Amino acid sequence: MKPKILTTLKDYDRQTFLGDIAAGVTVAMVALPLSLAIAIASGASPAKGLVTAIVAGFLISLLGGSRVQIGGPTGAFIVVVFGIIAEQGYDGLVLATFMAGAILLVAGALRAGRLIQLVPEPVINGFTIGIAIIIATSQLQSLFGLTLAEVPAEFFAKLGALWSAGHTLNPSALLIGLVTMVLIVWLRRLAPRLPGLIVAVAATSAVVELAGLPVDTIHSRFGDLPRSLPMPAMPEVNLARMRELLPDAFLIAFLAGVESLLSAMVADRMVAGRHRPNAELIAQGAANLGSALFGGLPATGAIARTATNVRAGGRTPVAGLVHAATILIVMLVAAPLAGYLAMPALAGLLILTAWNMSEPHRWRGYLKDRRSDQVLLLLTLVLTVVTDLAVAIGVGVAVGLALRLRRRNVPPSDWTPPER
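and the corresponding structure tokens:
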């Protein structure tokens, strides 16, 4: 369970350090707009996304079991966080995140890192696609510049409300959102090493400001961003509240554990490395405890940012530390500039993030899977969208494990009739 940074620093040299610095700055420019957008979509203030990226991102790299893992707020948490804030308030989210951190620390100490192998892959694919659908639909209001008094949380009711508000369409907002999406895709293909996300969002946001377009920005909707980290503080703890929030805490811990270990496995293939799953769980636990102490959001390893780090030349956890430090410097020095970022541009960024989360390049392969896996994926997807993530994961894992036992030809139980 030794942190990977202790291993990698043994033969650390100047060339590796320079590569880590360049990669850390690059991935910070990708993480910055994403962290703001994820926080807003989660129902929190944009500053919470920056706090999470700084505090949790630093701890995940410092204590983690992967060479190149980048941590912070991720799209997978948007649905969960939004629901907790709506039902329990932001203080409830902070306490649930703190509890999830403690759960992950215990899981790491008990060496539960390998248990991810028990979660059926169709379940992971199903709830990931379901989350992507929810994220994309949640951004339609900002993308189209629609005016709604209140957006329902339930999926089909939300679609109905968005359709009814179609007459409030803001053409300027839609144009900014679409141009941002086109720029992101174009820059990704033209210069994959360039942090195209921040370039695209900054460019279209600058057009909004210079042309005086009637488009919402972070500043117009949320006010000024803070220029420093808040002081750490323990969340208010009482036994009754902890009991009430325990299911949410387990859900956060499950998502953080699964996504971080999946991200670490992807990173292993990219750098021909081997992560330490139990150290990774402990790092996720510490990161969520730390994020909660600073009033931040749940955090985990981010697959897209980790891949960006590797492509930019990051080879050790130092790149992740530089990424967190870079975002902190931006917060201290240039927070007012981030306030000019346009809401439709961030919405376009999140819609593309949702599209990438769903991994469309794998859809054709799903059609070749066994029928039971297809049904399991579809079941988890539908339950994620129309009910909630906890139900979807619970049902999906239970059905998946039952199918796995059936494939292994486990004989049925020999029930003996009771003597009455």
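(Above: one complete record from the training split.) The longest helix spans residues 239-271.
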